[in-house]
Write a structure and sequence with these properties.
Two copies of one chain form a homodimer.
Chain A: H1 5-24, H2 27-32, H3 38-45, H4 48-73, H5 77-94, H6 96-107, H7 110-116, H8 122-133, H9 143-162, H10 164-171, H11 179-198
Helix pairs in contact in A: 1-4, 1-6, 4-5, 4-8, 5-6, 5-9, 5-11, 6-9, 8-9, 9-11
The structure holds a DNA duplex (30 and 30 nucleotides).
DNA sequence: TGACGACCTTACCGATCGGTAGGAAAATAC
DNA sequence: GTATTTTCCTACCGATCGGTAAGGTCGTCA
């Protein structure tokens, strides 16, 4: 069974928003990917902003789901974080568009997001912060500290993963072949080092 | 002595490119900040791409300078990294536009950068990688491992710093007042943890 | 005084932006 | 078999995009 036109449009839009950003992607460019006109897009979604919002909700739901799975996979918060970020690291290779959009929205879209005044990704952040605050500790992390920590992890993963194509181009593909492993180990180190510093 | 029009245009352009990205910032929007027309901009820089290139090279030079200062400030590579990232963390508050543009260029501008096929920031990355590879170790980092490490540090710093306005809006200003300290300590932890894992 | 160059203007250009209006065609419902 | 709804089209709209052409207003130097 073929995908609905609507879903195909969403996929094409996600790809283009990921590679060029909200302003850089045009309705015509998205519709062209399927050989349709931009009016077909507008028929399905009403406006560019609503199309983008729908993509963001899919991204957010997907990420919240991944965090919850990781929380179920282990009872130790450290292992929950490791499980999530490891899964996430893998997901970014298969779903690099999703990762790119997530990153943009977290650090890079203040102007646009302020305008529409909606934060689709807050549920996702809240889930992660909740795990971080459950880390065993003599003095548990307050919300802001937990955010600093969670953001540093997201940043570390994103930076490596999203920029991989770039680095491959700059430094050659061969050198990056073993990096999934390397990065995975790096993430565990970051999490364990932080947990250790809490002295739980 | 007032700044030259040219420099004022560069400053306005940097600000707008930082907050809206290459595609989202328009020549008219930049020129309007000074009450000039976009043709005044084009007179000084020729094209949007050349204007952006000039800003990128300022950013790159500034960052390379900061790394070199950090390298002179200490002989121990660990302390060089700590010095740089600590300086950088401070710089991002004063020069948040520069930081935002740097981030975009590192992770987010493949489409545009591929087109012009020029990497202004490679010298900056090379400087950092060189420090990372000088870390005392039984088996020194290869280039790719050094990159993973450097990127994780850049990612950690950027994520916290660039998104600070966002987080303040979401969670209140007060909670983030003490965070420069917190983040600074976090960065040192990350660097020392990695150095320790090398077993130098 | 006159020439020249730096600086910035108005007036355009063709292309593209997001979005609207109205209708053809095809599927669906009755 | 007819009515309705979904889907997608052509044809537009005003606004804006980056960029060009030509000219006017300066200060500088001869």
């Amino acid at each position: 069974m073929p995908l609905s036109t609507r879903q195909q449009l969403l996929d094409a839009a996600r790809h283009l928003f990921a590679s060029r950003g909200f302003y850089g992607a045009s309705l015509k460019g998205i519709a062209d990917e399927l050989g349709l006109t931009k009016q077909a897009l507008l028929h399905h979604f009403g406006s560019k902003e609503r199309l983008y919002a729908e993509i963001l909700s899919q991204v957010s739901d997907s990420m919240v789901g991944r965090v919850r799975l990781a929380r179920q996979a282990a009872s130790d918060p450290i292992e929950q974080l490791v499980a999530f970020f490891d899964d996430y690291l893998g997901a970014m290779n298969e779903e690099s568009d999703t990762a790119q959009i997530l990153m943009r929205e977290l650090v890079d879209n203040h102007a646009r997001a302020d305008k529409v005044n909606t934060w689709y990704l807050r549920p996702f952040l809240d889930e992660l912060v909740a795990i971080a605050r459950a880390l065993p500790s003599r003095s548990p992390l307050d919300e802001a500290e937990a955010f600093a920590f969670v953001y540093s992890l997201l940043g570390a993963v994103h930076y490596f993963s999203v920029s991989r194509p770039t680095l491959q181009k700059m430094y050659g593909r061969r050198r990056f072949a073993s990096h999934r492993r390397e990065m995975s180990a790096e993430i565990r180190r970051l999490i364990e080092a932080r947990a250790a510093s809490l002295g739980g």
